[in-house]
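User: Is it possible to get a 3D structure for a protein together with its bound compound? The compound here is sodium ion. I've pasted both below.
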Amino acid sequence: RKRLTVPAIRRRKSSREGGGEPLAMLTAYTVRTAQLLDPHCDMLLVGDSLGQVIYGLPSTVPVTLQMMAAHGAAVVRGSYHAVVVIDMPFGSYEASPQQAFESAAFLLKETGAAAVKLEGGEAMAPTVRFLSERGIPVMGHVGLTPQAVNVLGGYGARGKSEAEAAKIVADATAVAEAGAFAVVIEGVMEPIAIRITQAIACPTIGIGASAQCDGQVLVAEDMLGLFERTARFVKRYDDMAGRISAAVEAYAGEVRARVFPGPEQIYPAKD
Ligand code: KIV
Ligand code: NA
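Assistant: Yes, that's possible. Here is the predicted structure of the complex:
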């Protein structure tokens, strides 16, 4: 199977007639996860959520370009079907379009990923245009933008006032008109996600948004039941934490009872 392309994703405006099926996207940070998710997903996101999920950091703010590059390369090596999108980490793109281009080019060169994602709306629109016009496809991300946690004060849903709702719609419209090939809408009151989905030409990817978005994304560890803290918008499709605990408990018990290794796991002496 040939790898999907960014233009093919951009055409998947599933909320419009003839727009195709909704886009399925999950995060992946490692090669084995990428291999397992790739056949089922249109896009894999190397999310900066790896800061919390893999490294135990308190937020995504400390995540570095080097971390994103290392995990991005692993995910590209583990996939052959999905479009791989890499998050630009906090501090690597906000200062100027030039800074963003250097960081994004580094990520694409180091990993072979097809596109980057960056957080922000109207303020980032010139940067989205700068990158898009220079060969770097950009996915937008509006609403609850976790890199702004120190400004927002937490991870609560956004757009509860009409003024805030209007600002989020303006943000999404600005990055879409600047050339974003898709826009993630995270943690907003549902009517905002619907308004944006109807307003912009490229696909919207919801997370804590609406089933009417053109696609959905979740953190894989969250939907697999592997990460301890999850938001309302996470649906658990498995309890991998419980299953891993049970497997490890069984292993440790067998070691202590000298049941493992058994005859099948040892190299018997040649006679
Ligand atoms: O970092 C991440 O995992 C994300 C998605 C949740 C959209 O940005
Ligand atoms: Na992210």
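Strands lie at 23-27, 43-46, 83-87, 115-117, 138-143, 182-186, 204-207, 215-218. The pocket of 3-methyl-2-oxobutanoic acid (ligand 1) is lined by residues 27, 45, 47-49, 87, 184, 186, 207, 217, 219 (CB under 6 Å).
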